Description:
alpha+beta
Amino acid sequence: xxxxxxxxxxxxxxxxxxxxxxxxxxxxxxxxxxxxxxxxxxxxxxxxxxxxxxxxxxxxxxxxxxxxxxxxxxxxxxxxxxxxxxxxxxxxxxxxxxxxxxxxxxxxxxxxxxxxxxxxxxxxxxxxxxxxxxxxxxxxxxxx
Length: 144
Ligand SMILES: [Zn+2]
């Protein structure tokens, strides 16, 4: 059964009544009203400090959830439309290609990101492919 997660408040829901609809793009979070829900094939439990970044099929940032600012110092407006690996200075962007090409999750990747202030920060990154026809991916960043 598909599970939807809100990249903003991390509210997880199961689409039992069709509310979430058929496209992650059209759906809205029931809990906080955030304009994106991300469909997962299996349940996922983010850590309290995890920040989610939603990307399109070209790995450009569509939305950043709560926690991303605390982690990176970037506001939404700093990030929207930018290549995620470039914008956040991923020390290893290779999981993104893997996820996009093969449509599989890559969990527990240890890499560094670069904050707005220019500091390197160690994170654990989980990458999820989107299962709708728009493609795209979800990146979960958890401080280490
Ligand atoms: Zn929400």
